[in-house]
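The step that takes the researchers longest sounds almost clerical: writing a folded protein down as plain text. Below is the pair of lines this work produces for a single protein:

——
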Amino acid sequence: MVIVEAMASGLAVISTPVGSISDAVLDGVNGLLIPPKDVGALAAALATVIEAPEVRRRMGQEGRKLYLRKFMISRANQRLSEIFSSVHG
């Protein structure tokens, strides 16, 4: 949930690709995915978002777009309503 909240706020995300995280975080698009327990990769990812504000900003914008398209509750409710309507005629 924290990742979705960060994306809603327009922040770039750094995470490991465990569980369903890679469904939300697209490496190099709206965040950076690093291998679990890889301190060097974490340091490099942090350096990227700290030292490259344009990259950080772009990833944050892409994360916000994904949030609005896929995770925003009103959109999810609308989509569920459409699905239920199509099933029940």
Observations:
- The radius of gyration is 16 Å.
- The domain at 2-88 is CATH 3.40.50.2000 (Rossmann fold).
- Helices lie at 2-8, 21-24, 39-51, 53-71, 73-88.
